[in-house]
Write a structure and sequence with these properties.
Layout (H helix, E strand, L loop, with lengths): L4 E4 L4 H12 L4 E5 L5 H9 L3 E4 L5 H8 L4 E4 L13 H19 L3 E5 L9 H15 L3 E7 L3 H4 L6 E2 L4 E5 L11 H11 L8 E5 L7 H12 L4 E5 L1 H10 L3 H15 L6 H6 L7 H16 L4
Parallel strand pairs: 1-2, 1-4, 2-3, 4-5, 5-6, 6-9, 8-10
Antiparallel strand pairs: 7-8
Helix pairs in contact: 1-7, 3-4, 4-5, 8-12, 9-10
Amino acid sequence: MERPTTVVGATGLLGSEICRLFSSRSQPVRALIRPTSTPARVAQLEWSGVELVQGDLKDRASLDAACAGTQAIISTASSTLSRQPGDSIQTVDLEGQLSLIEAARKAGVEHFVFISFAPLQGDLPLQDAKRSVEQQLIRSGMSFTILRPTYFMEVWLSLSLGFDPIQARARIYGSGQAPLHWISVEDVARFAVGALENPRARDAILELGGEDALSQLDVIHEFEEQGGRRFERVYVSEHELRAQLAAATDPLQRSFAGLMLNVALGDQIDPRPAMEAIPIRPRTVRDYARQVMTHHQERGLGLE
C-alpha cells in the first residue's frame, strides 16, 4: 500500500491547493490540522478524501504521530497569517519547523519539501527563521527540496494589500517600477507536488517565479487591458516604507514591513533552474488578470 504524503499547513491557501492536487490524482494524502482550524476548511479537506490527523507544530508528540507511516512531508505552515494564541515566528516558523524536521527524520520520512521564500534585502526575523530551517533540513540526512517562491499573485494582488481590480484602484509600493517575478499559488502547489516526482528536484534549492519580471505598474497595465478601465494609483514611498520598518516593534510587524519594502525594491531571481528540474511553466500575470476580470464579469452577469 502506498504511503501518504503529509501536508503541514493544509488549511492554508497553498496547503489546501496541494491537498486538492493529490486528491485529484487519487494519491494518498494526509493533512495535519489543529483543533482550532477553520471548520469549513477542514470539512472541504475531508470531503476531498484527505486523511485528517490532529496536531500542532508546537506539540512535538503530535508531530511524531503525524509523521508515522509517511513517505513524504510538504510543509507550507507559517505564523504570518495565523490568529491562533501562541503562534509566532519563533514558535511556528522556527521552533515548530525544526521539531517537524526532527520528527520526520525519526519516522524515516524519505523526502521533505519545505516552502520557504526567495531572498529578501534586509535583516528580517521571518527570513532568519526560514534560512535556519533550510540549513537544518539540509543537515538532516533526508532527501529534501527547498522551494523559494517570490510574490504570490493571489496575496499581493488582492484587496487586503490595497490591490482592488474591481474598483480599479491599486496601492503601489515605492515607485512601482522595480521588476518582480510574480507567481501563482496554484503553480507553487504544482511545483511542490512535482518535487516528489522529479529526481532533479531532490536535494535542491529552487527559486520559483514567473518567466517574465513585471513591475507593479506593468501588472496594473495588464489589469487595465483586461478590465478596460484606468486604475487609480496610490503610492507609498520608499521613504515611508523604510520608516515603517524602522518603527516596527515586534518580529512579525518587522517582517511584514520588510516584505512591503522588498516589493518596492524588486527581486532578482532566475526561475529557469526550477522549470528545468520540475517541468512546469508558470502562468503569466496576464493569464491571472484575465481570470480575475472574467470571474468578476461572470458574477456581474449572474453566470456563476
